[in-house]
Design goal:
two-stranded antiparallel sheet; mainly alpha; about 50% helix; single chain
């Protein structure tokens, strides 16, 4: 997949995202409370979500976009980040392994978020996948966007392979 060209930015204006490692614009802007992303990467995620809503009318791939981004930016152990990682990895499992439709996966994930289910911290893998938001953001149409999101999602899901058994067990509690 072609990666968005960040060569226009000088090295002093880019930094690696501490979540996914992508070379993103160095920003001092807002970040998320428990998703571990740099301000520049968080801004790119916001732009990608806006594109999905405005240009692509909230496509089914949106579920994968959110789950993939969150799983690739696990943050550090806290009650909220632990639940976030568990739920978003469950979303990847539902859609990629069990072929759930986006709306049904979302229903189950909302149920999981509202439940009293106890999760524990899953130690993130050394690499959270070879692809990042940079590999998706410059798609030129809905088909290309959807294809890129699916490939990105698969690489992130595979990165968490050592925890698949636990994610499957948590998923079974929802079904």
């Amino acid at each position: 997949m072609p990666r968005k060209n960040n060569q226009k930015l000088t090295k002093s204006k880019i930094e690696p995202c501490f979540g996914c490692g992508a070379s993103v614009p160095k920003k001092n802007g807002p970040t998320h409370e428990y998703i571990g992303a740099s301000a520049g990467c968080w801004e790119l995620f916001g732009e990608l979500l806006a594109k999905e809503y405005e240009e692509y009318n909230n496509p089914p791939a949106h579920r994968l976009t959110v789950d993939t981004y969150a799983a690739q930016h696990p943050g550090s152990p806290s009650k909220k980040s632990i639940q976030s990682v568990a739920i978003h990895l469950t979303g990847l499992h539902l859609m990629l392994d069990l072929n759930y439709e986006a709306h049904r996966a979302t229903q189950l994930l909302n149920q999981a978020a509202e439940s009293s289910q106890e999760y524990h911290w899953l130690e993130p893998p050394q690499s959270l996948g070879s692809l990042t938001i940079l590999d998706v953001q410059d798609a030129e149409n809905i088909k290309e966007h959807t294809d890129r999101v699916h490939i990105w999602a698969h690489t992130v899901w595979q990165a968490w392979q050592s925890h698949h058994e636990q994610i499957r067990a948590w998923t079974e509690l929802l079904r």
